[in-house]
Structures
1.
Amino acid sequence: MTFSAEHISHSYGGKQVLSDVSFSLEPGELTTIMGPNGVGKTTLMKRLVGILPGTGGRLVLDGQDITNISPRERARLISYVPQRSHVSGSTVFESVLLGRRPYLSWNVNEEDLDMVDSIISSIGLEDISEKKVDSISGGEYQLVQIARALVQDPRVILLDEPTNNLDVANQENVLNVLKQLISERNVCAIMTNHDINLSARHSDRLVMLKDGRIYASGGKEVITSQSIKDVYGMDVTVETVRGNPMIVPV
């Protein structure tokens, strides 16, 4: 079950933001899109999930072109975790249940409720399932958003800066839980993340964007002092710590 983005391009008002971006995702793996602010990471995510319409490129899942399928059909295949999507006034359970919308007709059935219970349990949110989302921590809410995406039973999950504004402990917890669920459910997953070291520790594959194009893609070996200088404009050294690259500003 491979998901591929092929030759994705996008522009705003004549300004080219993405140019001929192509990559593939493998089930059970987490790919991270890297690059500085304004390079087109969020635009790419919105193109993949269909929030932004566009004519440049296509999306292929298991050999089938899904570029122009209906929003409801796409929501059954691809789920999206935005940087912040707050459902004020709802409980954690109700917020997660919203992920079942692509499958609902008139009423919520037992299958929907059982799936929500299962996802909440697997992520460890049982103790707060009846709490209002307004009253939980940022780290807990990120897990709620991930739970809502997973309850869609997707083949592909997209996450836009899932650790944004979290402290170090919550960043690690959110990504550890995410990696475990991706592996257990064998879904394709891609996220954007501005933290280079965090991305290197938790990603199976890295895709670096520069000027709206792919500068490099591969494993941890793509993180070098030269690639960081070219993409981010930073002078760094790259050390290896417990098998992972870690950038150190010069």
2.
Amino acid sequence: MNVSAAGLKKLFQEHLDLSSTKLEDVAKSFTKLYVDYQGEGVKKVSVQTVPDTRYTWIDPPSGRSQRVVLFFHGGGYTMGSTADHMQLISSLVLLSGISMLGIDYRLCPQHRFPAPLDDAECAYHWLMEDQKRSPEAIGFAGISAGGLLVTQLICRCQNRGIPIPSVALNMSGPMDLDFDRSSCTYNSERDIVVAERLRNIQNYYLPEEPQELGDELHPARIAYQQYPRTLFQAGDCEVLLDDNVEFYRILRQQGHAVHLQVIPNMIHCGQMFSRIYRPGEIAIEGAAQFLKDSFPKL
């Protein structure tokens, strides 16, 4: 089975309960859809939860690698989990040979920004301090909302003097929570998500009281002294396409080693459906190769 972008969009519309006002119902429909389209790869990796944490190790059949990637799932900060994203994670692990540590960060409505970012930072410290991994052996990866966490965590590292990781992979992540770039309009009929729904994230995710967190909410606005070797990856049918292109250009102008891969005919988070969706498969192959090639030799 191999579906087109229009076919995948139809699959979403037929299987997702987006009419419900209950976040739990919407989350369950997403989880079921993701699990229904998982492939055999999820059975080939080793999955191990870390006691008393929100962390899950996903290792290749050869065992835990020297290099490790922190993975942040998507879901608009209201849903999602490492388990939901296991098709994507296991594919990246098997193709790259690199272990991943999935982070189930805290979600809305119980927890607002910066709780997910705080959890991401804690996981990074845990890897460096508890697991004795050097920053050179650590990468960040995320999809959609998790992609923004990747760039926000890099921003926080610079602001707080925390060592920068070697590698970053941003899959279909927004540049900030403004959702006002041109692709939000010209791709609105092609993508599964619309800008209006994305802008609603501000209402439930941002804190009610103003905080001095402007840089972290807009990580593309600052000048970086150092930035990981990064791949920005998006589909040409995505409303968030221009977010990725613009952030990539900003960092290139600052002289950083960043790369951009635009996947033809891919809608938002097509990577999640690589088993049935060729653009998603192409995206995962490119992302895995980037991870495999980008870490320094240890």
3.
Amino acid sequence: MRDIQPASAALEQAREELLGRPNVVATGIGFKEVAGSRTEEIGIVCSVERKVPASELSEREIVPRAVAGVPTDVVATGPLRALAVHRERHRPSPGGVSIGHYEVTAGTLGCVVRRGEERFILSNNHVLANTNQGAVGDPIVQPGPYDGGIRADDTIAVLEEFVPIEMLEAESTCATARGIAAMLNSLALIVGSEARIKTVSTRIVENLVDAALARPLADNLLADEILRLGVVAGHGMAELGMEIRKSGRTTGVTTGDILQVNVTADVRMGERMARFTDQFMAGAMSQGGDSGSLVLDKESRAVGLLFAGSETTTVCNRIEHVHALLNVGS
């Protein structure tokens, strides 16, 4: 097992400053690349939407060559977006197939999880709960609406529970709102009040998971296995360099390696952004519609829940956070 503690300590101190640089969308611990080839040197990896020549950047905008003695690397991933799109009807429904809240496009049914003797469908919040917009009891259709699923014929479950996703908020740029706030603040000065009004407070709230549960309408509507991968053999711990695989709605079974851990990423969720911490990152092993896929190690143990990515990158929640926040087990 590789010692990533020095790099982790350095990243913990520097990640807010690094994420504040233009174009940086994620930071994590990974293997440094030289001339496009992976080395065994561990460093801090900064993912950017696109690489920009140093000559076009100010000194403040350039990612430093090292942080607290730990080397850095810059990789181009493109913008990170929550993945969602989808396919065929399955009864009983295994993991890896199209599913979704009746008002979304579609995503992937991750797997069956348990709380005591009860079985539930595990996938993403943005797949089953319409990114916080769903309500407990809402219909979940398989296949997802994008793939032809409709409430009348294809409802397989209802939304049971989801972990809310906290969005990044920026101070309002609305001229009317700023004008009203300025007028009220002027009045407050006249009457001697110390209270002041801001249009919107800037805040950063970090998320650990994009996860939700659905309760099946009947127990026999669900299959315990994952399509083309079989039955999940418990759960493990995602580690740097680990071989992983998944079965998803769009790209089917794909494999890869964990390229970064301790990842903090700003992910586009529709028109807004959300910050996720303690994630892990792999390469191009997913596309839109694969969101919600369960990520397995080579022993078929669950290690993560896929939820976002780009043309070159896949971002996953750690399965231990998913289990803890939803109070479920494999």
